[in-house]
Amino acid sequence: MAFYRQVGEVTPKRHTQFRRPDGGLYSEELVGEEGFSSDSALLYHRGIPSAIVDARPWELPDQTLTPNAPLVPRHLKLHDLFPGEEHKAVDAVTGRRLVLGNGDVRISYAVSSLPSPYYRNATGDECVYVERGAATLETTFGALTVGRGDYVVIPRTTTHRWVPTGPEPLRTYAIEANSHIAPPKRYLSRYGQFLEHAPYCERDLRAPAEPLLAEGTDVEVYVKHRGTGPGGLAGTVHVLPEHPFDVVGWDGHLYPYAFNIADYEPITGRVHQPPPVHQVFEGANFVICNFVPRKVDYHPLAVPVPYYHSNVDSDEIMFYVDGDYEARKGSGIGKGSISVHPGGHSHGPQPGAVERSLGVEYFDELAVMVDTFRPLDLGEAGIAVDDGKYAWTWSGRGPSA
Ligand SMILES: [Fe+2]
Which keywords describe this protein according to UniProt (predicted)? Predict the structure, then answer.
């Protein structure tokens, strides 16, 4: 993260004695990126953050990836996953079903009602988009109240758990990186402050405001880490002698935060603006963009829907969250759909969409897009809800028609 934050008690001078009320010393822990050479936080624990009393394997949800072959654009119907009351037995971590993935990023979906176990992802940062529902995200840095439309960015190895709140199930779209996830560099000054042209800024970000302390013994923490399983991953359950939420204070530039998509100020123009104006975050070899309700192109001869485009270096994954996505009308895509537009196939508006958009002044659409610079393979959940027909919607006929 770009800016400094302090929560709870810390010492005036770093790396000096900090005593508990009983006279013992707090344990100082540096959580830092890029080997002590990038953003970090200093945390003060009541206990010893290294202490574990047991370890056992955690069998991760199915991480098998299948190539998109033969190469076709696809429509994945996420809302067909977790039918009926299934969410009552699901949590937002162990219940994730893998939709798409490659060596840089994995996209999973869960509809949950149970609290997750304590969890840390040691493979990279997570950006979890909350499609619907509400939750408290409990972390070693403190708690965050999150809900519909929030992107929740959780740095690598942050111990946390998802606790659904409110009457409806929690629908989470988890973007798990094998790297860090941050605002685009071009939005930031060389010292990390958001610049004037950025579509959001520090005031739009929410972070823990006070320490979160809990008591407990023999507490299990589920760790996702590099390994030799599918996707190069493995899981381990560490059992901690004391509760991991024992941080009385911390400071630094590295911590979980939330940003709501409604706070994204869209950039518009007289003619069609390219997708980079919709960018919200970036990771290694992928970007996250969002399409929010906005006034559209106002040149008298403007064509508000996108031109056909061949992203020769990217696969383009759009998750349609709300509203009506003008360019996709007639394709069967609706709320809860994902479109997969792979590199190697030129995509654009469905037949008739260009003509229908002429003269339109406002698009009521909400979508989250992930563009990857390496091809995406299909996870088991992606295969399970592939409609099998989308590829033929521009021509109106296909092999099964
Ligand atoms: Fe596109």
Answer: Dioxygenase, Iron, Metal-binding, Oxidoreductase
